[in-house]
Amino acid sequence: MKEQLYTIPVTDAFESDCECPLCKMKQELERNAIEYTLGPSYMEDDNRAMTDEMGFCTEHIQKLYQEKNRLGLALILSTHMAKVTKDLHSLTGSAGNETSFFKRKTDSSGIGSYIQKLEHNCFICNRMNQTVDRYIDTIFHLYKKDNHFPEKLRNSKGFCTYHFAVLFDRAPQFLSKDTLTQFRADLQTVYFANMERMQEDIEWFINKFDYRYQNEPWKNAKDALPRSILKTHSAITPDTEL
Does residue 240 lie within any of the structural domains? Predict the structure, then answer.
């Protein structure tokens, strides 16, 4: 069943020992999207048309460059640049023909909106976010239908602040009144309890730089900094273990 394609990654993430199940799923989706982009698919016309149209955000073009397929990336960029150049030639040509003072003042050429669209589009981000949205929907589905899932949520290490807010705000779209109340209660309990735990870890990490604590054990604080960055910014550093 199609449903199972989404429930399996969700339940696996919640059963893992991670600071945010949604960040863990997103990291896996990002890895898959990068491999897909630089795999055989980049030679397919429909995929190349999408990468030509969307391009990549700054973060993902850097991650693509770090991969081994430099030729594949060069081919993708070559046709993307050709499309952008062609589009801008067309837009700047039409802008040069405008004579009205009012039209010039309102950027009737469309160049600004074209560049803005490029800056807010990314082939990898779009590919990831579509599936992340389905995973979020699946969390609510499992909370309603799977008797064991609410306990998995309560036993998790919570969520990053961004995904906590997403789940809190989106819950009314999927859950009835009583279930919504319970879900939000569980969500808040697990989020705030684990943020308190994280606060204790980062404070102990800070203490370890004080000579008075140099002989004390690290406890759970050695990796407190990358885990705190994940909790507060949904950002995965090279030292983050998910």
Answer: no
Asked if residue 42 belongs to a domain, the reply is: yes
CB 39 within 8 A of CB 32: no
The whole-angstrom distance between residue 14's C-alpha and the CA centroid of its chain comes to 17
**Alpha-helical runs (H) found in 55-176:** 58-65, 70-96, 101-105, 111-119, 123-145, 149-154, 161-170
- What's this model's pTM, rounded to 2 decimal places? 0.84
Q: Mind listing the pLDDT tens digit for each residue in 128-174?
A: 999 999 999 999 999 999 999 999 999 999 999 999 999 999 999 99
Residue 37: give the domain boundaries. Answer: 2-233
Q: Which of 2-16, 29-43, 192-206 has the highest mean pLDDT?
A: 192-206
The reply to whether 241 falls in a domain is no
Query: In the chain, what is the straight-line distance between the N-terminal and C-terminal CA atoms, in Å?
Result: 28
At residue 5 the predicted structure's pLDDT band, cuts being 50, 70 and 90, is: low
DSSP 187: H
Q: What is the rounded CA–CA span in Å between residue 218 and residue 7?
A: 37
| Contacts (Cβ under 8 Å, ≥6 apart) of 114 | 87, 88, 91
Question: Are 130 and 50 spatial neighbours (Cβ–Cβ below 8 Å)?
Answer: no
